[in-house]
Amino acid sequence: MPDVHIRRPHQLGLDRARELARQWVREAGRKYDLVCTVDPGAAADTVVFKRAGVSGQLVVSASHLELTARLGMLLGAFQKSIEAEIGKNLDALLAREAPPAARQ
């Protein structure tokens, strides 16, 4: 079972969700020193990420983003705050794409 599991539904479609995932990869790589690889698929892409103490994946589909991660022993102590921060980042990324009426 993963230490971190976050699922966020969206209505962006696969192409726009892929663009958002690329933004997330750039930001996460820079901010958290993650090494990310993207495995594109017909129905969904999988972004695999890792660094010392954490490994996981972000599944990008036409209807949702789903992130799972395993934390090492040292980072495991911060599981709740890490999960909250990742959730906040994904929510902010999706909120920028929401139609104006949905932002209110």
Shape: globular
Q: Count of helical segments?
A: 4
> Quick one: how many beta strands?
5
Radius of gyration (Å): 14 Å
Strand order of the largest sheet: 1-5-4-3-2
* Average pLDDT level: 91
Helix content bin = 40-55%
N-end to C-end Cα span? 36 Å
* Oligomer state of the chains in this structure: single chain
Weakly predicted, low-confidence segments: none
> How much of the residues is beta strand, in percent?
25-35%
Give, in order, the helices and strands. EHEEEEHHH
Describe the model:
This protein has 104 residues and is of the alpha+beta class. Helix content is 43%, strand content 34%. The protein is built from four helices and five strands. The protein has a five-stranded antiparallel β-sheet. The longest helix is centred in the first third of the chain and has 20 residues, at 13-32. The radius of gyration is 14 Å and the shape is globular. The termini are far apart.
Quick summary of this structure?
Helix content is 43%, strand content 34%. The protein is an alpha+beta fold and 104 residues long.
List keywords for this structure.
4 helices; 34% strand; 104 residues; single chain; five-stranded antiparallel sheet
Give the SSE map.
Layout lengths: L3 E6 L3 H20 L2 E5 L4 E8 L2 E8 L2 E8 L1 H4 L2 H17 L4 H4 L1
